[in-house]
Amino acid sequence: MSRSDENQRIILGIKLREAREQAGYSLQKLGDLSGISPSYLNEIEKGKKYPSIEKITSLSEQLAVDKEWLLSQKLDKKLAPVSDLLDSGILKELPLKMLGLELPKLLELLSNTPSKLNAFIRTLIEITRNYDLRVETFYFSVMRSYQEIHDNYFESLEAHAERFIRKHKFDLSKPISSDMLARILKRDFDYRIVKDGFSGDQQLADLRSYTKRGRKRATLFLNKDLSESQKTFIYGREIGYCYMSLETRSYTSTWVEIGSFDEVLNNFRASYFSNAIVLHKSQFLKDLKAFLSNPDWNEDILFTTLSRYNCTPEMLLQRLTNLLPKYFGLKELFFLRFTNVPGTQEYELSKEMHLGGIRDPRGTVLHEHYCRRWMFIDILKQMTERQSSGTYRNEVMGGGQIATYFDSKDTYLVFSIARPLFPTLHVNSSLTLGIKLDSRSRVKIAFTKDPSIKERLVHNTCERCPAQNCKYRAEEASVWKENQKLKKRKELLKKL
Questions:
Q1: Residues ≥6 apart with Cβ < 8 Å to 166
Q2: Residue 433's closest CA among 335, 358, 350, 355?
Q3: Which of 477, 247, 459 has its CA nearest to residue 371?
Q4: Of 63, 72, 152, 479, which shows the fewest CB atoms inside 10 Å?
Q5: At residue 256, does pLDDT exceed 90?
């Protein structure tokens, strides 16, 4: 069924319901007059059925409305925004069914209050125009919401990974190598692997991989500069696509084009699968329990874990977001990825996720300067300085921090890991996991009492921070000062 056919059904349903209610008829009454069952009329009004021309003629006569009006795609002024919304493609791109919604049901709910519907739709369309929001923005926002409402733990994906591990009888006391997974790709799924896939083509130099589907077999092209752990992740993700029969998928890494939400969803599923086999739950939980129960903080554990499991920093921190809420009850946490071009003061938040309802530090503030007191910013600055001085040796940098907000006093235990964003040229990246500290989490994480962990007061951005004489400040506290003026004005008005 085409999108235009669906829109036609929806608009007819809206018009029929509007005409019936104006006539003062119930579904039963209109059914008696027109000879059409009330249940079928209900299906028409919900946009699920499109009646024959004879039935439309009968309905127009009983409701005393023009048949051509019922058949046309135009709505009256108060419901005209529905047409705008359908034509804009916004709702078409949102995976409503995944969120438990159907398009006709959503429009039915909204059309109960036409004036509010009008304002809502016009606002939605205006926002997308003013902020030049692309459909990818909706996809990734919905994907984050999907992860957040499930605490980023998915039992079905864990079960797939478990069955795969058992089938191939992996020795979990040893790291899974890229060669092991490459052999499985070739033997079980008939892949051809080209390890120097983008040689000599500068336009493709920052791509990590490309999968080409042939009629008989698939070819996986790799960037020659990938690390061992990056290749392991990519092979694991390719196996995930095949093993779980995920047909709709992206063929490039990083993203070049997104055709549908299913591509985003299946990329997440295949990536989750890869993380789950490399950082296998049964073994990793033992190491994680030992790490959290140690009263002494040792940041070297972060780095030794990367080599122990042959995983990337992002794989490690993402895996923690899967397991900490489920098995340790640490549900209030965030994951952030920042990028920085060395030599600039621009720090871009390229990925974020917040679990447990927390929203700080948030990444929705436009054109403001993130607080330099956070480790995830400071560590990028340190990396740039070492690169400039010639003392950087391509190692992973990182550590821990206890960060407390100036105003709310919310406190987080923060792990940050930074490294150049290979194979992207001249870009550094920091990855951060933050766990909210309260009475429960302080018991679960024994080393929070260790005085060797650096503690700092922080805020979201310099513009909103009340700190005085901050040596890290990159911009004046313009937003905070404006808020203080407004607060004072309100206090004076109350006194009047």
A1: none
A2: 335
A3: 459
A4: 72
A5: no
- Per-residue model confidence (pLDDT) at position 153: 95
The amino acid at residue 74 is K
Ordered structural domains, the chain, with CATH: 3-133 (1.10.260.40), 149-278 (no CATH), 282-485 (no CATH)
Neighbours of 232 (CB within 10 A): 27
Predicted confidence (pLDDT) at residue 1 exceeds the cutoff of 50:
no
Do you find a cis peptide bond into 432, omega within 30 degrees of 0? no
Contact 50, 9 (CB under 8 A): yes
What torsion, rounded to 10 degrees, do the Cα atoms 357, 361, 364, 370 define? 180
Residue 286 phi/psi, 5-degree rounding, is: -65, -45
What confidence tens digit (pLDDT) does each residue in 394-424 have? 788 988 999 999 877 889 999 999 999 887 7
Asked whether residue 96 carries a pLDDT value surpassing 90, the answer given is no
Residue 459: HSE in the Cβ half-sphere, 13 Å Cα cutoff: 21
Cα separation of 45 and 420, whole Å?
Answer: 56
Q: Check residue 63 and give its pLDDT.
A: 87
Please name the amino acid found at residue 188: D
| CA distances from residue 385 to 194, 379, 390 in whole angstroms, order as listed | 36, 10, 9
Give the pLDDT score at 105. Answer: 59
Per-residue pLDDT at 140: 81
Output the pLDDT for position 253.
Answer: 86
CB 431 within 8 A of CB 379: no
pLDDT band at 125 (very low <50, low <70, confident <90, very high): low
Phi, psi angle pair for 191, to nearest 5°: -90, 145
Burial class (CB in 10 A: 0-12, 13-18, 19+), 299: middle
Amino acid present at 124 = L
